From TrEMBL:
It comes from Dactylosporangium siamense. The gene is mtnP. GO terms for biological process: L-methionine salvage from methylthioadenosine; purine ribonucleoside salvage. The record marks S164, M219 as: Important for substrate specificity. This is S-methyl-5'-thioadenosine phosphorylase. CDD domains: MTAP_SsMTAPII_like_MTIP. Signal peptide: none annotated. HAMAP family: MTAP.
Protein backbone atom coordinates (compact mmCIF):
# COMPACT_ATOMS: atom_id res chain seq x y z
CA UNK A 1 0.00 0.00 0.00
CA UNK A 2 1.27 3.51 -0.75
CA UNK A 3 1.98 5.66 2.27
CA UNK A 4 -1.02 7.63 3.50
CA UNK A 5 0.53 9.09 6.66
CA UNK A 6 3.80 9.00 8.55
CA UNK A 7 2.53 10.17 11.95
CA UNK A 8 -0.44 8.78 13.88
CA UNK A 9 -2.35 9.73 16.98
CA UNK A 10 -4.18 6.98 18.86
CA UNK A 11 -6.92 8.72 20.84
CA UNK A 12 -8.11 7.37 24.17
CA UNK A 13 -10.99 7.93 26.57
CA UNK A 14 -12.61 11.27 25.72
CA UNK A 15 -10.57 11.86 22.55
CA UNK A 16 -12.56 10.27 19.74
CA UNK A 17 -11.67 12.66 16.91
CA UNK A 18 -8.84 15.07 16.16
CA UNK A 19 -8.52 15.89 12.48
CA UNK A 20 -10.52 18.34 10.36
CA UNK A 21 -11.44 17.65 6.72
CA UNK A 22 -10.15 14.11 7.09
CA UNK A 23 -10.53 11.24 4.66
CA UNK A 24 -11.67 7.95 6.10
CA UNK A 25 -9.98 4.62 5.39
CA UNK A 26 -11.59 1.31 6.25
CA UNK A 27 -8.69 -1.07 6.86
CA UNK A 28 -8.29 -4.75 7.56
CA UNK A 29 -5.28 -6.64 8.91
CA UNK A 30 -4.18 -10.25 9.52
CA UNK A 31 -5.29 -9.56 13.13
CA UNK A 32 -8.77 -8.38 12.23
CA UNK A 33 -10.20 -4.90 11.84
CA UNK A 34 -8.84 -1.98 13.84
CA UNK A 35 -11.09 -0.26 16.39
CA UNK A 36 -12.55 2.05 13.72
CA UNK A 37 -11.78 3.37 10.25
CA UNK A 38 -8.58 5.43 10.29
CA UNK A 39 -8.98 9.11 9.41
CA UNK A 40 -6.17 10.94 7.63
CA UNK A 41 -5.51 14.66 7.12
CA UNK A 42 -2.61 17.08 6.86
CA UNK A 43 -1.49 18.77 10.09
CA UNK A 44 1.23 21.42 9.83
CA UNK A 45 2.34 19.91 6.52
CA UNK A 46 2.49 16.36 7.91
CA UNK A 47 0.22 13.56 6.76
CA UNK A 48 -1.37 12.39 9.99
CA UNK A 49 -3.61 9.45 10.84
CA UNK A 50 -6.02 9.30 13.76
CA UNK A 51 -7.50 6.17 15.34
CA UNK A 52 -9.65 6.13 18.50
CA UNK A 53 -8.47 3.03 20.39
CA UNK A 54 -11.84 2.40 22.09
CA UNK A 55 -13.76 3.17 18.86
CA UNK A 56 -15.46 6.53 18.47
CA UNK A 57 -18.46 5.27 20.44
CA UNK A 58 -16.16 3.78 23.11
CA UNK A 59 -17.43 0.27 22.46
CA UNK A 60 -14.11 -1.47 23.23
CA UNK A 61 -13.19 -1.63 26.92
CA UNK A 62 -9.43 -1.61 27.59
CA UNK A 63 -9.07 -5.40 27.77
CA UNK A 64 -10.92 -5.90 24.44
CA UNK A 65 -9.23 -3.28 22.27
CA UNK A 66 -7.84 -4.84 19.07
CA UNK A 67 -4.33 -3.60 19.84
CA UNK A 68 -2.57 -5.73 17.23
CA UNK A 69 -4.95 -4.71 14.45
CA UNK A 70 -4.62 -1.04 15.40
CA UNK A 71 -0.82 -0.94 15.31
CA UNK A 72 -0.60 -3.16 12.23
CA UNK A 73 -3.08 -0.99 10.31
CA UNK A 74 -1.13 2.16 11.12
CA UNK A 75 2.18 0.60 10.06
CA UNK A 76 0.53 -0.68 6.89
CA UNK A 77 -0.44 2.85 5.80
CA UNK A 78 3.11 4.11 6.29
CA UNK A 79 3.09 5.42 9.86
CA UNK A 80 6.50 5.48 11.60
CA UNK A 81 5.75 7.63 14.67
CA UNK A 82 2.82 7.23 17.06
CA UNK A 83 1.56 9.71 19.65
CA UNK A 84 -0.61 8.01 22.25
CA UNK A 85 -2.62 10.30 24.50
CA UNK A 86 -4.39 8.62 27.42
CA UNK A 87 -6.23 9.30 30.66
CA UNK A 88 -4.36 8.17 33.78
CA UNK A 89 -4.70 8.17 37.53
CA UNK A 90 -2.04 9.93 39.56
CA UNK A 91 -0.14 7.71 42.01
CA UNK A 92 1.40 10.65 43.88
CA UNK A 93 -0.43 13.57 45.49
CA UNK A 94 1.51 16.13 43.46
CA UNK A 95 0.26 14.55 40.20
CA UNK A 96 -3.35 15.68 40.43
CA UNK A 97 -6.06 16.12 37.76
CA UNK A 98 -4.97 18.28 34.83
CA UNK A 99 -1.28 17.33 35.17
CA UNK A 100 0.55 16.20 32.02
CA UNK A 101 2.94 13.26 32.36
CA UNK A 102 5.19 12.09 29.53
CA UNK A 103 6.02 8.57 30.74
CA UNK A 104 9.62 7.40 30.46
CA UNK A 105 9.06 3.89 31.84
CA UNK A 106 6.32 1.30 31.99
CA UNK A 107 5.31 -1.49 34.38
CA UNK A 108 3.04 -4.09 32.82
CA UNK A 109 0.40 -5.40 35.24
CA UNK A 110 -1.96 -6.62 32.52
CA UNK A 111 -2.83 -10.28 32.17
CA UNK A 112 -4.31 -12.30 29.34
CA UNK A 113 -3.55 -9.79 26.57
CA UNK A 114 -1.63 -10.91 23.51
CA UNK A 115 1.49 -8.78 23.47
CA UNK A 116 3.38 -9.91 20.40
CA UNK A 117 3.00 -10.20 16.64
CA UNK A 118 5.56 -13.00 16.48
CA UNK A 119 4.36 -16.46 17.43
CA UNK A 120 7.22 -18.26 15.70
CA UNK A 121 10.94 -17.69 15.51
CA UNK A 122 13.35 -15.79 17.72
CA UNK A 123 12.08 -12.22 17.74
CA UNK A 124 12.93 -10.51 21.03
CA UNK A 125 12.81 -6.74 20.86
CA UNK A 126 14.69 -4.43 23.20
CA UNK A 127 12.16 -2.79 25.52
CA UNK A 128 14.51 -1.25 28.10
CA UNK A 129 13.20 2.18 27.19
CA UNK A 130 9.61 1.66 26.04
CA UNK A 131 9.09 5.24 24.82
CA UNK A 132 10.70 7.24 22.04
CA UNK A 133 13.25 9.79 23.32
CA UNK A 134 12.69 12.14 20.39
CA UNK A 135 8.91 12.03 20.72
CA UNK A 136 9.12 12.65 24.46
CA UNK A 137 11.42 15.63 23.95
CA UNK A 138 9.06 17.09 21.33
CA UNK A 139 6.03 16.76 23.62
CA UNK A 140 7.87 18.30 26.56
CA UNK A 141 9.11 21.25 24.46
CA UNK A 142 5.77 21.96 22.78
CA UNK A 143 3.86 21.66 26.06
CA UNK A 144 6.26 24.18 27.64
CA UNK A 145 5.60 26.54 24.72
CA UNK A 146 1.92 26.23 25.63
CA UNK A 147 2.72 27.08 29.25
CA UNK A 148 2.14 23.48 30.34
CA UNK A 149 4.59 21.84 32.71
CA UNK A 150 5.16 18.13 32.08
CA UNK A 151 6.48 15.41 34.37
CA UNK A 152 8.52 12.29 33.63
CA UNK A 153 7.51 9.09 35.35
CA UNK A 154 6.65 5.43 35.24
CA UNK A 155 3.26 4.35 33.94
CA UNK A 156 1.73 1.25 35.54
CA UNK A 157 -0.73 -0.48 33.21
CA UNK A 158 -3.41 -2.59 34.86
CA UNK A 159 -5.73 -5.11 33.24
CA UNK A 160 -8.96 -3.35 34.19
CA UNK A 161 -11.69 -2.72 33.47
CA UNK A 162 -12.00 -2.19 37.21
CA UNK A 163 -9.97 0.46 38.96
CA UNK A 164 -7.34 -0.61 41.49
CA UNK A 165 -7.90 -1.36 45.16
CA UNK A 166 -6.26 0.97 47.67
CA UNK A 167 -3.66 -1.69 48.52
CA UNK A 168 -2.78 -2.28 44.86
CA UNK A 169 -2.58 1.43 44.29
CA UNK A 170 -0.27 2.01 47.28
CA UNK A 171 1.87 -0.88 46.06
CA UNK A 172 2.17 0.69 42.58
CA UNK A 173 3.35 3.93 44.20
CA UNK A 174 5.87 2.00 46.33
CA UNK A 175 7.12 0.21 43.17
CA UNK A 176 7.96 3.60 41.67
CA UNK A 177 4.82 4.23 39.64
CA UNK A 178 3.83 7.80 38.87
CA UNK A 179 0.58 7.16 37.00
CA UNK A 180 -1.72 4.22 36.27
CA UNK A 181 -3.90 3.38 33.28
CA UNK A 182 -5.39 0.43 31.39
CA UNK A 183 -4.33 0.82 27.75
CA UNK A 184 -0.63 1.71 27.70
CA UNK A 185 0.25 -1.96 27.26
CA UNK A 186 0.44 -3.92 24.99
CA UNK A 187 0.16 -0.81 22.78
CA UNK A 188 3.73 0.24 23.59
CA UNK A 189 5.38 -3.11 22.92
CA UNK A 190 3.39 -3.76 19.75
CA UNK A 191 4.59 -0.41 18.43
CA UNK A 192 8.15 -1.45 19.27
CA UNK A 193 7.64 -4.80 17.51
CA UNK A 194 6.83 -2.86 14.33
CA UNK A 195 9.83 -0.52 14.82
CA UNK A 196 7.58 2.47 15.38
CA UNK A 197 8.46 5.44 17.55
CA UNK A 198 5.84 5.50 20.34
CA UNK A 199 5.24 8.39 22.72
CA UNK A 200 2.62 8.36 25.44
CA UNK A 201 1.05 11.64 26.60
CA UNK A 202 -0.75 11.00 29.86
CA UNK A 203 -3.34 13.40 31.16
CA UNK A 204 -4.06 12.86 34.85
CA UNK A 205 -7.81 12.69 35.45
CA UNK A 206 -7.90 11.56 39.09
CA UNK A 207 -5.81 10.61 42.06
CA UNK A 208 -5.82 6.83 42.30
CA UNK A 209 -7.44 5.01 45.24
CA UNK A 210 -4.31 4.68 47.35
CA UNK A 211 -3.55 8.40 47.19
CA UNK A 212 -6.90 9.95 47.89
CA UNK A 213 -8.59 9.09 51.16
CA UNK A 214 -12.30 9.00 50.51
CA UNK A 215 -14.31 7.47 47.66
CA UNK A 216 -11.77 5.90 45.27
CA UNK A 217 -11.88 6.50 41.50
CA UNK A 218 -15.10 6.76 39.47
CA UNK A 219 -15.51 6.64 35.71
CA UNK A 220 -17.54 9.85 35.76
CA UNK A 221 -14.72 11.80 37.36
CA UNK A 222 -12.27 10.48 34.75
CA UNK A 223 -14.47 11.64 31.86
CA UNK A 224 -15.23 14.99 33.52
CA UNK A 225 -11.57 15.78 34.22
CA UNK A 226 -10.60 14.72 30.71
CA UNK A 227 -13.29 16.93 29.18
CA UNK A 228 -12.05 19.88 31.23
CA UNK A 229 -8.57 19.45 29.73
CA UNK A 230 -9.27 18.14 26.22
CA UNK A 231 -8.60 21.43 24.47
CA UNK A 232 -5.18 21.82 26.13
CA UNK A 233 -4.28 18.29 25.09
CA UNK A 234 -5.63 18.75 21.57
CA UNK A 235 -3.66 21.95 20.99
CA UNK A 236 -0.43 20.36 22.24
CA UNK A 237 -0.94 17.30 20.03
CA UNK A 238 -1.57 19.38 16.91
CA UNK A 239 1.66 21.31 17.49
CA UNK A 240 3.74 18.23 18.34
CA UNK A 241 2.91 16.57 15.01
CA UNK A 242 4.88 19.04 12.83
CA UNK A 243 7.65 19.12 15.47
CA UNK A 244 8.42 15.43 14.95
CA UNK A 245 11.36 14.60 12.66
CA UNK A 246 10.47 13.83 9.05
CA UNK A 247 13.05 11.07 8.96
CA UNK A 248 13.26 9.60 12.48
CA UNK A 249 16.36 7.57 13.25
CA UNK A 250 15.78 6.69 16.90
CA UNK A 251 16.68 3.22 18.19
CA UNK A 252 12.92 2.44 18.03
CA UNK A 253 13.17 2.54 14.23
CA UNK A 254 15.85 -0.18 14.37
CA UNK A 255 14.09 -2.48 16.83
CA UNK A 256 13.85 -5.27 14.25
CA UNK A 257 17.33 -4.94 12.78
CA UNK A 258 18.91 -8.39 12.58
CA UNK A 259 15.68 -10.18 13.53
CA UNK A 260 14.25 -12.99 11.37
CA UNK A 261 11.13 -11.06 10.25
C1 LIG B 1 -12.82 5.97 31.30
S1 LIG B 1 -12.17 5.32 32.76
C2 LIG B 1 -10.81 4.20 32.41
C3 LIG B 1 -10.30 4.19 30.99
O1 LIG B 1 -9.70 5.47 30.72
C4 LIG B 1 -8.39 5.27 30.24
O2 LIG B 1 -8.50 5.12 28.84
P1 LIG B 1 -7.35 5.58 27.80
O3 LIG B 1 -6.07 5.00 28.32
O4 LIG B 1 -7.74 4.99 26.48
O5 LIG B 1 -7.36 7.08 27.78
C5 LIG B 1 -7.97 3.99 30.96
O6 LIG B 1 -6.83 3.40 30.42
C6 LIG B 1 -9.19 3.15 30.86
O7 LIG B 1 -9.28 2.49 29.63
N1 LIG C 1 -7.06 5.68 38.31
C1 LIG C 1 -7.01 5.07 37.13
N2 LIG C 1 -6.68 3.76 37.05
C2 LIG C 1 -6.62 3.13 35.84
N3 LIG C 1 -6.90 3.73 34.68
C3 LIG C 1 -7.24 5.03 34.72
N4 LIG C 1 -7.55 5.88 33.72
C4 LIG C 1 -7.82 7.08 34.29
N5 LIG C 1 -7.69 7.02 35.64
C5 LIG C 1 -7.32 5.75 35.93
Amino acid sequence: MTSLADVAVIGGSGLYSLLEDAEEHVLDTPFGAPSDPVTVATVGGRRTAFLPRHGKDHRFPPHRIPYRANLWALREIGVRQVLAPCAVGGLRPELGPGTFVVPDQLIDRTSGRIQTFYDTGAVHVNFADPYCATGRAAVTKVAAEHGIETHDGTMVVVEGPRFSSRAESRWFTAMGGAVVNMTGHPEAVLARELALCYTSIALVTDLDAGVEGDHGVTMDEVFAAFAANTERLRSVLLDVIPALPEHPDDPCQHALDGMPV
